[in-house]
Amino acid sequence: MSKPAKPTKPSKPSRKSTPAVAPRQDRPSGISDTATLRARARKDIEDGAITATYSADRKAVIKLLNDALATEYVCVLRYYRHYFMAKGMLADSIKAEFLEHAQQEQAHAGKLAERIVQLGGEPDLNPDTLTRRSHAQYKEGRDLRDMVRENLIAERIAIDSYREMINFVGDKDTTTKRILEEILAQEEEHADEFADLLEGWIGE
């Protein structure tokens, strides 16, 4: 008589080796890892804020900023001249505009000078060459109306020059671009204010 067959044990699941999982990429394309950032920062440390990722033409940017700096200082001097020389029935209210704009243009000059230094350049404040390098002119104005007109023309010049600089810099120097955009926005406000003065307060 044959022996009864032994009950078969349930087979154990095979333990095949799990394929290696590729390491998860935590960084988007174009973003450096920590080790690379640290190593790169130790190179050329004398350049300060300018690192290897700065891709604009630094010399060209500094030249443009110095020209803009000259423009701002010429505008400061013109506004102060008009502030002190304004006369007539509407002089008091318009003098306040001249003074405010002079102070704002001075603030623009400060931002430009600081950025020039950050880029490793030197602010060119040589008074002998300011008017030659300035985009806008130093126009004294014959009377109050002429002063307003000349300031409007100067602001329109500044608007075009800042727009061109912004387009030139693009995304290669986002800090400089932001500074220029902030200044441009205020120059546009100035132009609007002077256009309103000519149309509503003084007339053509």
What does this structure look like?
- The structure is a single chain.
- This protein is mainly alpha-helical.
- Helices cover 60% and strands 0% of the residues.
- It has 6 helices and no strands.
- Helix 2 (58-85) runs antiparallel to helix 5.
- The model has no long low-confidence stretch (mean pLDDT 84).
* Contiguous runs where pLDDT drops below 50 for at least 5 residues: none
Strand content: under 5%
Spell out the helices and strands N to C: HHHHHH
> What about the largest sheet?
none
The radius of gyration over CA amounts to: 32 Å
Mean pLDDT: 84
What sort of overall outline do the alpha carbons produce when their principal axes are compared?
Answer: elongated
Query: What is the terminal separation in angstroms?
Result: 129 Å
**Would you count the extended β strands for me?**
0
Q: Enumerate how many helices there are, as a single number.
A: 6
Class by helix and strand content?
Answer: mainly alpha
Helix content: 55-70%
Brief summary of the model shown:
With 204 residues, the protein is mostly helical.
What is the fold's blueprint, element by element?
Elements: H1 34-41, H2 58-85, H3 91-118, H4 130-133, H5 144-169, H6 174-202
Helix pairs in contact: 2-3, 2-5, 3-6, 5-6
